[in-house]
Design a protein that fits this description.
Elements lengths: L11 H7 L2 E7 L6 H11 L8 H6 L6 H11 L6 H17 L2 E8 L1 H5 L5 H19 L2 E9 L4 H11 L8 E5 L11 H9 L3 E6 L5 H11 L3 E4 L7 H9 L4 E3 L1 H6 L11 H6 L4 E3 L4 H4 L3 H11 L5 H13 L5 H18 L2
Parallel strand pairs: 1-2, 2-3, 3-4, 4-5, 5-6, 6-7, 7-8
Helix pairs in contact: 5-7, 8-9, 16-17
Bound molecules: adenine and zinc ion (ZN).
Pfam families: A_deaminase
InterPro entries: A_deaminase_dom (IPR001365), ADE (IPR028892), Ado/ade_deaminase (IPR006330), Metal_Hydrolase (IPR032466)
Protein name: Adenine deaminase
């Protein structure tokens, strides 16, 4: 048993940084830093709408999800070659390793690239190569989750799935992202049914900007195994009780939620209520290059804004990240043992 009360509050930031953790909600295209955007634009002869790194970064003032997505898709337009996808993912893994992320499940948006004429194989091979090398050289376990863009049609999602099937062994699951309002999960009922038949793991963004009903239809129609964001569940107490009873994880992204005006400040975030309700909530970075921070920034800044939180909540969130991950039970247990050791050593 870890004696959380013996962990001094002033040790908490260092502990948050040092503890092993899994990242389950990272759009790899959202890890593309302005410096790398400019480097790839030059390498590929792509013209950007901004004259400098500083000007691009200055445009990162978002009012809602759509205002971010417009800039995010423009940034991704510099990705053309397999090496570009590798370089982007490698840069993320360097940050993840520094943050003691031991496992990462990376979202990627193939339609953003295939619509521009980039072959599916180019996207998946580049990302998969980076995952393999991150495991070999950094000890990070990593897998890919293919996301369908919900502002496009279900037919387009189905065609994307078929195009990706030759690379089936390189991704573990599918997700649903992009503009949420007006694009409910049930729009993608058929394609997710096919994905389930194929044995893919199922997740979906729901309840970020969209209503709690979208969380319900993600559960009931798509049959998701995790909800990405899900913070609007609190508007429906019966739904919160169901999520807790089913141990349905929520991959919450605090800095993202503030940048996209879902919550005014980190102090206003409903994460404390989610944990109190017994939900398997996790902390993640979403699009770290755009929202001001990677995993440890999210952890340290969130805890700094929530004085009621201490070592117990830190341990719980890291534990939840392993519970919610799509890895075999033995791997989860090994990471939880590492987690317990780090906390036991701090409780002196
Ligand atoms: N936060 C987010 N919500 C929906 N789609 C996204 N694509 C990248 N980031 C996203
Ligand atoms: Zn997201």
């Amino acid at each position: 048993m870890i004696d959380f009360d013996r962990i001094r509050p002033d040790r908490l930031p260092a502990l948050l940084r040092a503890m092993p953790k899994a990242e389950l909600h990272i759009h790899i295209e959202g890890s593309l830093e302005p410096e790398l955007i400019f480097k790839l634009a030059e390498r590929n002869g792509v013209k950007l709408a901004y004259p400098s790194v500083e000007a691009l970064r200055a445009a990162y003032a978002f009012t809602d999800l759509q205002s971010f997505l417009d800039i995010y898709y423009a940034g991704a337009s510099v990705l053309l070659k397999e090496q570009d996808f590798f370089d982007m993912a490698w840069a993320y893994f360097e940050k993840a390793a520094a943050d003691n992320v031991v496992h990462a499940e990376l979202f990627f948006d193939p339609q953003t690239h295939t619509e521009r004429g980039v072959p599916m194989g180019t996207v998946i091979r580049g990302l998969e190569h980076a995952c393999r090398r991150a495991h070999a050289e950094m000890g990070i376990s990593a897998s890919l989750i293919l996301c369908f863009l919900r502002h496009l049609s279900e037919d387009a999602a189905m065609a994307t799935l078929e195009e990706a099937l030759p690379y089936r062994q390189h991704f573990i699951g599918v997700g649903l992202d992009s503009s949420e309002r007006g694009h409910p999960p049930e729009k993608f009922a058929r394609v997710f049914a096919r994905c389930r038949e194929l044995g893919l793991r199922i997740v979906a963004h729901a309840g970020e900007e969209g209503p709690p009903e979208y969380i319900r239809s993600a559960l009931d129609v798509l049959k998701v195994e995790r909800i990405d964001h899900g913070v609007r569940c609190v508007e429906d107490p019966a739904l919160v009780r169901r999520l807790a009873a089913e141990r349905m994880p929520l991959t919450v992204c605090p800095l993202s939620n503030v940048k996209l005006c879902v919550f005014k400040t980190l102090a206003d975030h409903n994460l404390p209520a989610l944990l109190k309700a017994g939900l398997v909530a996790t902390i993640n970075s979403d699009d770290p290059a755009y929202f001001g921070g990677y995993m440890n920034d999210n952890f340290v800044q969130t805890f700094a804004a929530l004085p009621q939180w201490g070592a117990r909540e830190a341990w719980q969130l890291a534990h939840n990240s392993f519970e919610a991950s799509f890895v075999p039970e033995a791997a989860k247990q090994a990471w939880v043992r590492q987690l317990d050791q780090v906390f036991a050593a701090a409780a002196v």
